[in-house]
Amino acid sequence: MAKPDETSEIIERIYDVAVDPSRYEAMLDIWEQRLSVLRLKADEEASLPIAADTGIEAHLERADIFLQRLFDLQADAGRSPLDLEAKAAFLVDQALRIDSVNEAARATLGLAPGRALDGLPLHSEDVAKLKAAIRRQLPAKTPEPTLLRFTSANSDRSILFHVALYLPGNGQTPFVLVRTTELGWPAHLSKTMREAFNLTAAEVEVVRALAEGRSLREISEERGRSLATVRTQISAILAKTETHSQTELIRLTLGLMDVVGTIPASRNGALGASTLLPIPFRSRLTPDGRRSDWIEFGDPGGRPLLFLPLDYGMIRWSRQAEIAAEQRGIRVISVVRPGYGFSAPLPSKVSYRDGVGSDLRGLLDHLGIAKAAALVLGADLRFAMALARLDPARLTGIFGCSAALPVVNARQYERMGKWHRFILANARYAPRILPFLVRSGFALARSVGKESFFRSVNASSPADLRTFSDPDIRAAILLGSDICLGPEHSAHDVFARECIDSENDWADLVRACPVPVRLLQGAEDPQTPAQTVRELMPVFPHLDIEIVEDAGQLLFFQHWPRVLDELETMLPR
Known about the structure:
- The protein is 48% helix and 14% strand.
- The protein is of the alpha/beta class.
- β8, α12 and β9 form a beta-alpha-beta unit.
- The longest helix has 23 residues, at 54-76.
């Protein structure tokens, strides 16, 4: 435990970070001064520093409340309320003209910014009622929202309109937010559902009708099919999507609408005309009812390669690398693991590495893949090995790039870059305080931007900074890692859980790995430096390890042509 004066200084730094994440590095430096000696001592005495200090833990809990409020404000800052709407919604200005619309409003109501409300597919008397409701909202400071029911001028269907005042903040002019019950169907969703669940075109249309609120009788009449035929189709759809009810099917469909219809476009736009093509997410339900996502690129009929993208969630490759995968006949299955993106987290009592291993096997089963090779980054090595232990015949080999091997003592932590050491050493020696440290780190990254944060974290690796300066690689990393930290997601809780899992000794898992393992290790990797790799090579003599000079944690992004060349011998024939 820290001395009283040291404890007071640490507590002061904790509250500093809770209200201003930019002070994170100052907290890191002060904390590390205290902990480096304590970690070495802990190895000798088999005790944990700081974690037993209940005073610090109590302050962390209080500080975390402030930090969570800051985190919520960061997530909402600068976002239009339309970003949160899956159904048709639009903003109206004081001149009663449409200011902005979401994609669902474009698709279902034919709206566009700058147009008048008279263009709505409503009868003229209903448009007049909607205008009156909007006018009532604007003068008042806290008006009551209005709910109106109209009949579409294009059909006999009813549409609800929820009308409410929207104040952007910072003294900006107020708007009126109009939300409707009209559900937009993204252009790529039909294709995605057919590919992800092997649905027929007719079955996709039935799913769409259910999502749009039609009854079985209405679907039957519109499609000219008997009720019995529609019920049979729905039974087949439930089986293919592994859902158990129409409600569950609709919930899955709405989730896919958010992912396929909104996120890829907004992410690519945020990167500014990235050369990367948008790739839709695919989803399945696990046997315990969790949503599990992945993406695919390369050759759809090619040799399967399971890609495990590090705890930063870097699920995309550079444009040239993705093109090369297709040309080489490689089908890349890039996994969005539990707690990242829209993939639901594992239950708290489930072993994280075993749970991920089980999910990987379930995904391969779902895709009908009997054998695959695995390409892993960083500590994701343990997930591939967990899959190999669970199903030894499933993997033809594991290829790791700057893989993180099990760290065995405090001296190996001391060699890491200070950011990696701070998080991972605390994951091992003080796991109860780690969630606050991770959450505040994520808050800092959101404040300064992921690009600036990445450069700070990897400042000790010139090779990584040079690799990251390549525009195509930088775009791939920033876009792919949105499932970890982006406009729609923050995986801070599961990131902390992953770090704790990675620092619990898994040497036995490595020793017992039943498949060939080839590792290329970057000499400038800030998480697993070359000296530590050399110490671990005799500990795990069955691993085929090579240290690559002038490379860091981004070894794969830097040397992907070599990696794909070497993978040829591992990929299933």
